[in-house]
Specification:
six-stranded mixed beta sheet; 13 helices; elongated; Immunoglobulin-like; about 550 residues; five-stranded mixed beta sheet; 4 domains; 26 strands; alpha+beta
Amino acid sequence: MSIPKEPRQLMINIMYLVLTAMLALNVSAEIFNAFKIVDKGLIKSNKALEESNDALPEAIRDGAKKKNTLEKYAELIDPARSAASDLNLYIDDIINELIDESGNINGVVDDEDYVFREGKKTTDLRGKKNKDVTTRILVTEGKGEELKQKLLDYRAATIAMADEEDRESFNNEIPAIVDDQTWRDKYNVAEGQQSGKGGKNWSFFNFRQMPVQAVLPILRKFQNDVISTESAFLNYLATKVGTTKDLVIDKFTVVSAPEKTYVINGETFTTDVFISASASQESNTGMTLSVNGRQLPINEDGVATFIQTANGVGKKSYRVDGTVTNPVTGEVQSFTKTYEYEVGERSAAISAAKMNVFYIGVENPVEVSVAGVPSNQVQVSMGGSGGGNINKNSDGTYTVNVSTPTPLGQFAKVNVSAPGFNASKDFRVKRIPDPVPKLSKSRGGAMSSGEFKAQGGIRPELEHFDFDAKCDIVGFQVVRVPRRADAEIAINRGGRYVQDSERVVNKATAGDRFFFENIKCKCPGDPAPRDLGTMSFTIK
């Protein structure tokens, strides 16, 4: 009996490809939920296959009792199962380490279907978006390469346990487990080399900057390949001792494997639906599959594909009905399950990272995102008033520079376009607010003569302004009014005292009044100086 060819195994391989494709997109909450759904499906599939494997050893041992020459096949059961168990426990340890290191240790659970280890269960990982943990453990610390070698060694050791004349055909029946060619092609690494330029290797390709929730289904898929390889070897032993016809599994269920559970309005929703069994069948004779009452054609692998255009925003449900003839009893069994997916609209988020206006003379940071669209497919431009331009930064954000205040009722526009989507948002353009002139820490009032004379001039302060901008004092007039003498006036250019101004300031005595008048300054983007008014001080 050959097991790797059944529809269940094909479903898992398709899930893995879809998962890999998802990682090329902006990872939204809906995609993280899809990763979780795939992970839960793999956990259930692995459990079902393990139960199937548990039924084989006894039958193999019974068959081996027929002849002394068959006993060697029974003796291979324990080494094969032990090797598979040890490798799966090793992968479990990696999974638990990723979960713990990303902040989910001693997590509490409500959903018993999503269990990572006995006594520690969770339905939503705290560290599901953590990329640093996966990169550190699986790439930097080398555990990914260690895992790869263990997978290769396990597969080679399993093949070596088969009879020499059967090894080539057995090698073609079991999963490859490790894809060692794709990363070599991507990084142009020759066969035999362990890594390419910059240390890029299999682990770098598969795990670098991957969120924890996305890595879990990949590790589960490796576990599935290990269990499938174990199953294929046990079935090989069963064939050798002549017990194949006695081994019939009669547990079935309906399964739907969607490409994604969140689609954009107008896109197509695609899912594979099939009967899942714990052992493969010779054919799909007597099997039917339908969705919402519409019967679907079934291919030679027992898989039917349901395609439906997403129409209208919100949650959608579909009912899957299946029938199959039980190979043990001949009874026709029926199964029905209802599944859901969600349809959303494309939307764009355009926001000024600091304020809801653009300021002249400074770099205005802007963040732009379009739900469900990769950032490299989003085009951003400036329009409207304000004389603005926008540039993309290395971190994916944007910087806007503007030059002209927008008149009342007019705006600068940030335009966003993506496949099947266009949007824009209006922004006002303003000058930098007037700075506050200060002497020491004061705008006026009483000040001691010592503190007054210690100041080197007037400084402008931009209060409550979040941007990194600096204004400069262009000039002012200082007037000293003594109690019993005529007023003295000095003209000052710049913010620091010049000789005449310093001479007048140094005469300050108790009871004097000082006025700083006609204070002018220039801020970034100003075409001409602006007037900051007058300050008045009384010397005490």
